[in-house]
Write a structure and sequence with these properties.
single chain; 353 residues; alpha+beta; BirA Bifunctional Protein, domain 2; 2 domains; eight-stranded mixed sheet; 12 helices; 20% strand
Length: 353
């Protein structure tokens, strides 16, 4: 039995000095495997007398169980140590600020926000939303809207024209969203009440102009539509959009080929400070154009001006966004500067901020 005690001491010493789970696994195989140090003595049991074999077998079996328990215990200690080391290595510094969720960090562009605000106001008044193509024909962009041949707007310095087609047609990027009005009057019988939003294109670029800009227009056609209806509606729009309880607006005579009479709408404001304040002050600022639909436009759309009349209006979304939210340069809308968007943009979860 002395040799068994020596063997046990050697195995226990090897277990104590093992430095990793890998070392422990090698020791387990060398000790308990088929050719291990505890398996070799078992092979001698067959040649021993019965009583001696029984006692020797019991000792070896108990030793084997004891060694297994020592290996399992040492393996658990290694595992526990590895977990603590991993926790320490991958620890999180809770003093750092938590990163915002993408839904909180993302921002709605001021143009999108302004379009949504304008559309919502007119939708509450009973207007339907209409859209049309950005690439238009000369007919829908100019002729049907009563632009005479030779009008300056038809010149290359104002309009983005495409190359002339084989059939002689020359398409262009629409200079306003008004062609949608013509398409609506061609397809729909009065009464018509639509609001239109979309992009428009002109060769112009400075602090308050961009080659591509956004417009919102409206159209009403009915047998009972009057200029008084139009003036009341635009007054209500200005009051709601600019969020002023007391508003003062004025209608100035102007000229547009597709309306007669034509007017521009100014809103009272205070421009004495860096920030424009509406509903107060002694200054006036133009915000949109409007007028009664020209009889020639109605006839072009097969509507009898003796029966039907209507009015239309249009405004630049980019400019009224600048006025309402105090943005100094129109070009910043298109610079894709994330810092600018984080400052002027709106939270998707709370569009009012």
């Amino acid at each position: 039995m002395g040799s068994i005690e020596i063997l046990e001491q050697k195995i226990r010493s090897a277990i104590d000095t093992a430095e990793s789970i890998e070392d422990l696994e090698v020791l387990r195989v060398n000790t308990l495997g088929k050719k291990g140090t505890l398996s070799t003595p078992l092979k001698r049991l067959g040649s021993m007398p019965k009583e001696e074999r029984k006692a020797f077998g019991l000792v070896l079996n108990n030793l084997k169980k004891h060694i297994e328990s020592l290996l399992i215990e040492k393996h658990k200690r290694f595992k526990k140590t590895m977990i603590f080391q991993q926790i320490e290595r991958e620890s999180i510094d809770v003093t750092l600020p938590v990163r915002q969720d993408p839904t909180e960090r993302g921002r709605i562009h001021p143009i999108t926000q302004t379009i949504d605000e304008v559309i919502t106001i007119f939708s509450d008044m009973g207007f339907m939303i209409a859209t049309g193509p950005d690439v238009e024909t000369d007919y829908y962009n100019f002729t049907a809207l009563n632009f005479p041949i030779g009008h300056p707007a038809r010149d290359m310095h104002d309009t983005f024209f495409f190359n002339t087609h084989e059939n002689g047609e020359r398409k262009l990027l629409r200079t306003h969203t008004s062609p949608v009005q013509i398409r609506a009057m061609e397809k729909q019988k009065p009464p018509i009440r639509i609001v239109i939003s979309g992009k428009a294109y002109r060769m112009d670029s400075d602090v308050t102009h961009s080659p591509m800009f956004h417009q919102v227009e409206g159209l009403v056609v009915d047998s009972t539509a009057t200029i008084a209806n139009m003036m009341w509606m635009l007054e209500q729009f200005c009051k709601t959009f600019f969020e002023v309880s007391s508003r003062k607006i004025r209608f100035r005579p102007s000229f547009f080929p597709f309306t007669e009479p034509s007017m521009e709408v100014d809103i009272q404001c205070d421009c004495s400070s860096r920030k424009v304040k509406f509903g107060t002050g002694h200054n006036w600022m133009e915000i949109l154009g409007c007028g009664m639909i020209h009889p020639n436009v109605l006839r072009t759309c097969n509507l009898d001006p003796e029966i039907y009349q209507g009015f239309a209006w249009g405004m630049g979304v980019d400019r009224i966004a600048m006025l309402k939210y105090g943005m100094p340069d129109l070009r910043d809308f298109f610079n894709t500067d994330i810092r600018w968007l984080e400052h002027y943009g709106f939270s998707p979860l709370n569009p009012s901020t």
